[in-house]
Amino acid sequence: MSFLTGSHGVDSTEDCKLLFCSRVHNESDGILLRARLQVSARRLGFSPAQREDMVLVAAEMASNQVKHAAGKGMLQVWQQPGGALDLVALDFGPGIGNVSLAQEDGYSTVHTLGKGLGSIRRLSDEFEIFSQPKEKDQQGLWHGTAAWARFWMESPRRGGNAAARPAEDRAQIGLFSRPFSDDRFNGDRIYLERHGDKLRWLHLDGLGHGENAQQAFANFTGHLFHKDNLSGELVDIDRCLAGTRGAVAVVTEVDLAGKSLSMLGVGDMSAHVYQDGEMHNFSFAPGILGREHKSAKVTRLACGRGCLIITNSDGIRHGWDASSFPGLFSQHPQLVAYLLGNVMGRVSDDQSVCAVRINS
Known about the structure:
Elements: E1 10-11, H1 12-15, E2 17-24, H2 29-44, H3 48-68, E3 73-80, E4 84-91, H4 99-102, H5 116-123, E5 126-132, E6 144-152, E7 171-178, E8 188-195, E9 198-206, H6 210-215, H7 230-240, E10 247-255, E11 260-266, E12 270-275, E13 278-282, E14 299-302, E15 308-312, H8 333-344, E16 351-358
Antiparallel strand pairs: 1-8, 2-3, 3-4, 4-6, 5-6, 7-16, 8-9, 9-10, 10-11, 11-14, 12-13, 12-15, 15-16
Helix pairs in contact: 2-3, 3-5
């Protein structure tokens, strides 16, 4: 059974966790990363051979940042749904002019063997890289390189059961959820479920921070298909939040068969749809669910193959579009979520991103 089937959906609080994050200034910074990586991977059940590959990938990522990012890089370890563990390297360095060439064995700009990125790709179950070179007098939001390497518990490279992994035949998912000051509790939450041809997710941001904000909607697991339509879902959510601090939220449904998208929400949440090379941005009815708000209206759009839908809380800053990160929104949604969360996240708030690409 897929992790998006029936009541076995995704809850970002349980399934999307930042396990480690550290700046990389020199080679010694990679030692702690590799030690923590081994502990986390062993606890999650990865095999010794998989853990060895992870350590090699982490070492290459750290080495690349020391050589090219001049101390302006960081490495992260994430747990993601379906038995996935991710390594993320993101820096604010000069960027890579030709990403395809940089992944070829033997290519190097610093007179080394030039096997780093090629080795990362071979050792990982999934790998993608995005880079935005620094231009002269550039005033953009970000320049540098972001690399993402994923390892599956059931790795098909090692004879694992691919059917045990999340089904990504019709939709790819990317999640980023990080609490304010890396607290234990997160007031942002994403619930995602798939029933047949329909994929729904509820993206919430509770008022305030900490345990009270998180507990306001801790019982929403399996809630997404209580009603046949999104308006009914939002009414139920509003009722469930009565008596709490309240929350803002957006609920989204993709009909994979009908290739259509519907969404509605309340409060300071954002949605973005990238299709045919253009980004369309959406905001929602003012107010707070569980308290007082304006009536929410459903937005409906055609959503063809390759369409990317992004929802985010106000922990992600405004002021970005497709031109801010040229080429990013054609990448895997998980890399999109990691880059937006890390680059555009507000340090004074919980931060969350859900990115979904339609493949069918």
